[in-house]
Amino acid sequence: MDNDHEAYILLLLSDSNLPTGSFVASAGLESYVTHGFFSSASPSSTSSTADKMGYTVNFLRDSLSTYARSALPFVLDAHRAVEDALRDANASTGNAMDCAMTRVRELDELYETMTLNHIARRASRTQGVALLTLFSKGFVKPRLSQHLEASADSSADIRAASLMNRLKLLVRREETHGHLPICWGVLTAALGLSAERSQYLHLFLQARSLLSSSVRLNTIGPYAAQQLLLHAVRPLVDAEMSRCKHLGTGHTEATDGAGEDMSDEDVVRGPAMTWPLGEILAARHDLQHSRIFNS
Amino acid sequence: MAPSKLEQGHGRVVLHNDGNANVFSEMSATYPLKLLSPQLPSPDVSVVYMLSYGGGLVGGDRVQLNVEVYDGARLALLSQGSTKVFKARPGQRLSTRSKLHSVTTQRLTVRVAPESALFLLPDPVTCFRAAKYEQVQTLHLCKDSSAVLLDWITSGRKSLGEEWAFSQYFSLNEVWIEGKRVARDAMLLEERDVLSGPLTPRTLAESLAPYSCYATLIMYGPLLEDTMRHLTAAYGAITVFKQHAPPPLLWSLSPICEGRGCVVRLAAKETEHVKNWIGSALKQLESILGVDVYRRAFS
Description:
The complex is a heterodimer. Chain A is an all-alpha fold. In chain A, 64% of the residues lie in helices and 0% in strands. Chain A has one domain (48-139, 155-256, 263-287). In chain A, helix 3 packs across helix 9 (222-244), helix 5 packs across helix 6 and helix 6 runs antiparallel to helix 7 (180-190). The radius of gyration of chain A is 20 Å and the shape is globular. In chain B, 15% of the residues lie in helices and 42% in strands. Chain B has helices spanning 96-100, 204-208, 225-236, 271-281, 285-289, 291-298; strands at residues 10-17, 22-29, 33-36, 45-52, 56-57, 62-69, 74-78, 83-85, 104-112, 117-120, 125-127, 132-141, 146-154, 168-177, 180-190, 213-220, 249-256, 261-268.
């Protein structure tokens, strides 16, 4: 895939108006604020703007860190599975596509069993399915015979579209869950984005979505959010990328016999949650007396 | 009692019930693991203490315990005092072999037959400064087996000023039912490397503050139905209004397996607080395991 194409896809996917459902998700931030984690140690003083920016960055760092460690391996493996299938232009293409779908379903199931917080599970499914809808409604080539040549589709494009359709159908039939990191990996591979760009953009969008939640919760203002996006999010995403971009799920048919047969290194290198406090707070989302987000 | 030779640090427990009472058809362990089963008044409830010599594990220790429970027997696995994990001995790193093994590991694999039950209720793990610890616990259950798995960790020796000062703690809990994995709870707590770039380091202690004890409680099966119903109702009745400081204890509950099981997570400023909370949440174990076993686990 050439650079211009990749750059253009990046522009499209980073559009904040893209209907991905992320605007109703705060990934536990709303609950974090409600539970008093935005208050300074001294009870007398009310938090200043700088304090609030500080608390926001606390949350951003811990939240992004645990998300990167739990979700990036799934983005990578789902992306790889689809990329491999699309690259394979041989006669056995049908077979390659079946393999890719099987793999994607395995990953989706593993993510479901690893996401033990029901609120996060719900939010992840909603956003994953939104991505599939986005592809089928927003990214397929329109029928415009006066302007676009119908024959210009490459066979890879056609295969990508059919793969996305199959996944969407499986989710609709409730044969798979449609979790966000898996759907993101599949979508970005179908659009021809490299695995690394895909992971980087996924983390960036996650961080930006947290900051926009922050603005809607009125904990920081829109200018402060921009400041953080430029000065804090970039080093943060870079750091998490260098920690997690090479990690896979470690999940293949061969290793499916449970952790007991795996070596120590294999076990620790797999996806893991790193912030138990965030898990508890996120799972308590629905207990809040008033709330504006779904997660 | 020990038909097959066990590797160092390995242990094996097989519990049957002959129709009248529980019978250990096997119970053996090798250094540094030691197993102890006290006499109990109730015939179909057994307790096994998992002990390590000297009350702690040193860097590089590897313990592996396999447990099987059959015939409707009920088994509680307990420890005596918290599992203390020391850092790797200096000098041990000289040899390549022990360098590979500088992580202290504990693995527990349990198989629970239909209508049988396993209650894993150890004291918390306490990792000392610079310790590296890894734990893998796998439960293989049948549809109508019951199980409770408690996995908890404290921030260290507070009296020595240790607050989340270990170097790595990794815990993996898996629940399989009829050969299908239904839950994989992987948690990694580690001090992060110092980053290049403008961000100042954020320590593990900062991320986990203000709490110094975290617990995960996984429950499944018919024996736990009342307990889960009670907890789910209590959880649903909580209404959180805007708070001005983090509360001393926080807990959450998420159902798994269409409500036949659940995952409870807790955080509290004091370990004692967590212990009391769990003790009262699992109060029903008094009737399932008997008052004596309940007291052994929670007092």
